[in-house]
Amino acid sequence: MKTIVVTGGNRGIGKEIAKQLSSKGHQVILTARDKQKGLEAQKEFAEQGLEVSFEQLDVSSYDSIDKFVSSISSQYEKIDVLINNAGLFIDGNKNTYNIDLDSLEQTMRTNVYGPIALTKGLIRLLEKSSDPRIINISSGMGAIDDIAGGYPSYRISKTALNSFTINLSKELTNFKINAVCPGWVRTDMGGSSASRPVEKGAETPVWLALDNSVTTGKFWRDKQVIPW
Ligand SMILES: NC(=O)c1ccc[n+]([C@@H]2O[C@H](COP(=O)([O-])OP(=O)(O)OC[C@H]3O[C@@H](n4cnc5c(N)ncnc54)[C@H](OP(=O)(O)O)[C@@H]3O)[C@@H](O)[C@H]2O)c1
User: Fold this and answer.
1) How far, in Å, from the CA of 7 to the mean position of ligand 1?
2) Which CATH number covers residue 121?
3) E strands along the chain, which residues?
4) The domain containing residue 106 runs over which residues?
């Protein structure tokens, strides 16, 4: 049984990742920035016979990350997997030259600085695992060769998250550290026209968390390596 932290676990892909991992018998620490929403998700899981722990965590706040790390450190000996899932997509199809700087800042805090700070905070607990893994939920919209203009804050943030993933994987060579694009998924972020259900969006992140054949330092979609 692995102990697994999932950020942004109260809805969308994060919630489905938490559900699938818990269904497979792992100890999931579901986190959400809104306590009420997190507790509702926990209750919903309990009604399905799934027991998950809940901790409040706003990944855009270093203070919240510090509190979370203290709380986790006092309760758990080790963490096996960190899944940086929480994300923002708020700048719409603006042009890069007309980027909204507030949106950029908020997006970078949530999609990049949050995962970096949280990873830094949890490293000591992850190092205690015999098979430590970090999974960054990224997007093909941040893949360098696919960048097509528009959505500047989101694209820039996911490219940066990918860079963080590669850099870290070169340093912590006993870890499995990967980025993953879930595809276009029907969530509040992906919208109702998206091609994939949440179950499919969660499939590769869950595989990256658990499968023995997983390598490190790669960008994945549908269990296949894709270009950065
Ligand atoms: N859906 C897609 O098509 C798609 C495609 C490629 C990549 N992705 C990536 O997949 C991940 C999950 O996306 P999704 O589609 O599930 O999005 P979603 O339905 O919009 O859910 C986003 C989750 O992130 C949480 N969140 C946002 N800011 C946060 C913060 N500061 N602290 C903690 N949690 C925060 C939200 O919490 P609240 O409920 O409190 O807002 C929510 O739980 C994201 O990283 C996204 O970029 C999604």
Assistant:
1) 9
2) 3.40.50.720
3) 3-6, 27-32, 53-56, 81-84, 133-137, 176-180, 219-221, 224-225
4) 3-225
